[in-house]
Amino acid sequence: MSEHGIEVTVNGHRHAARVEARTSLGEFLREGLGYTGTHLGCEHGVCGACTVMVDGAAVRSCLMLAVQVDGAQITTIEGLAEADGTLHPVQQALRDNFGLQCGFCTPGIAISLACVMQEEAGAGEGARENALVRAMSGHICRCTGYQGIRRAIRQLSGHQPAADEAEAVA
Amino acid sequence: MKPAPFDYVRPASVAEACRILAEAGGGATVIAGGQTLVPLLNLRMSQPFVVVDINGIDGLRGISRVEGGTRIGAGTRQADALADDTLARHLPVVVAALGHVGHYQTRTRGTVGGSIALGEPAAEMPAAAVALGALIEIASVRGTRQVPAREFYVGPYMTVLEPDELVTGILYPDWPEGHFMLFREVARRPGDFALVGLVGALAVERGAVSRAGIAWFGMGPTPIAANQAEDALVGTALAGIDVERVARLAVADAAPFDDHHASAEYRRTVGLRIFARTLRETLDIRSAA
Ligand code: FES
Ligand code: FES
Known about the structure:
- The structure holds two protein chains of two kinds.
- Chain A has helices at residues 25-32, 89-96, 106-119, 125-135, 147-156, 163-169; strands spanning 3-10, 13-20, 51-54, 57-60, 73-75.
- Chain A is α+β, with helices and mostly antiparallel strands.
- In chain A, α2 (89-96) crosses α3 and α3 (106-119) runs antiparallel to α4 (125-135).
């Protein structure tokens, strides 16, 4: 059973640590560094709750070993908002549209959607909306019925909510 | 902490990786993207002594044009392959298939070689390799070898790969400019493994099929080449293709089974439909009926 020294940057902060080879990235973030905003659900890659950004890409933190992120830049849900507390557009959209209830799935969803927003920054409305919707196939939410999340995606894609939708939200 | 304890090594070259695999005598497991291996580790269904991380081997990544074809390095991320221009130009059907592999969040880590080496019978990449006539490039301390994808898969998750061997790349032969691609998958949700799927390519010359490569996934213990359908198509004029008959021949080569996702009968019925529809749409042949 090997142990390894690693150095990672999480939400702009550098951390050096020793990890057992079998420690997952998700467990390391939560137990080792105290970033408990990353939620571990299934721990076998199905639910998406554990999704974090590693070097700009959305990955399942339950399916990466901590030792594999040596030298990487990681963003967790704690690092998505700005320093002054201004929410990331994805967080704001989820909030505006009742896109979360218990919030267990939300950190992973917010990270995935934020990654897509970054990648599709130059894309047209329709393409961005498609990409956002497609990324949702990698997440399970047991509370919202997805409607609020779908509305948040519409907002992120630049749609004005239709009158009946605005009413439904209110 | 879920997995059983193991040692972790990160070789910097294929030679070093092969040496470690050889020394481990079957007790080592290769981690590429980890999108299948880590769930198995977490469930303790896999308990290797050594996990060999090949992500530090730069030479394993990348897509290149080679004599007569296109090579995908085994360590190429599925997301990178999906966005690759060379692949889109020369192997559009592989790109179409890649869009169905896992999810956005797993393609960022998952590799093409990992999917090929795993041999999940309902997965897209192995079937695409079988359909297109790809060669699997393999290395070990004993040297290198190339195995046709059609001989690589022997059962569910079983391949001819020896415990000390590493898949280093996949070589796809060129298909003529303007060839048709065939792809259709039926799954419960996007990103799920297919209940039934088919993938392939057809080349047409002077109004007749000149070359056909078609394979099923989710239709048996391995990806399955639709040999009889391929034979029936090659040499036939487009106008003379009996779509329903070819579809029946294709299903005759499949060996679907019952599981908790679907019955064998369901798979055969759906297979018949999607084969006929895909072929008809692709060739724009009007149904005789
Ligand atoms: S905890 Fe990682 S996908 Fe469920
Ligand atoms: S808000 Fe509870 S699981 Fe999604």
